[in-house]
């Protein structure tokens, strides 16, 4: 059984995070190609520096029926979900850092605000070229995300979407808290699958940042259940088999208490991520 991972965290580095915002002035905002910083201060309870989003990582040895892990599947804060643009609308708006001043003005966002900083981070991240062995792009509309996903991993193959779903019996409401979950079944490896994880980025309209690795990744479909049987989760999980090129300070290594770059790192996906898979 996995031990509980109460980690004292002042930064959150998650390469699947959704919001790039600074949580506290004393926290350094560090961002690399693989990492993003998430403002989770609203999730901290009673001054505990316990960051629930870190309960997404697990070790490859945990990936078997019967393993129990504390996991926090976040709820989308609907107030924070910006409008979804059609491709025609999105294509009329520049999407490059060199136009940041114009964009801030266009969306009435003050230059010094956290939102402006987050927008800049998003534009910078979206303009990174994929490094060797990686897929990477941003979709500013669902149509463009689908086209790019097809072009990137599917060619002529069928593309499927996987998302993480939390299910409760009909008379219950979902309690979005940290729960202990047990793998109810042997995780099913999706062999020969190419995948892209798409994460919503902080931006005045919906922008997805999608990335994936050409090799060295195993994709699984997992089925988890809480001890009381009231919460079931079905969704994708991914294991990065070769972490030798990761930043040594990657939070995953700390959370999992493993020697940096020494072992595979696996993670589940937040509820509002879109995972594209193709044979
Ligand atoms: C981080 O989140 C907290 C709570 O929601 C908020 O008060 C604070 O302004 C946020 N910080 C930034 C830099 O957005
Ligand atoms: C998970 O299980 C452990 C050990 O059984 C227990 O100490 C912990 O409080 C549980 N955590 C939650 C969030 O229920
Ligand atoms: C991991 O990746 C590095 C860099 O691409 C490579 O040199 C190394 O051989 C890989 N290790 C394994 C076990 O595949």
From TrEMBL:
Q: Any idea what this protein is called?
A: BURP domain-containing protein
This protein's encoding gene: A06p004610.1_BraROA
Q: Does the keyword Iron-sulfur apply?
A: no
Taxonomically, the superkingdom here is Eukaryota
Any Pfam family hit:
BURP
Q: Organism classification, top ranks?
A: Eukaryota, Viridiplantae, Streptophyta, Embryophyta, Tracheophyta
Q: Which UniProt keywords apply?
A: Signal
InterPro entries the record matches: BURP, BURP_dom
- Please state every residue range assigned to the domain named BURP: 57-279
According to the record, the signal peptide region is 1-23
Biological source species: Brassica rapa subsp. trilocularis
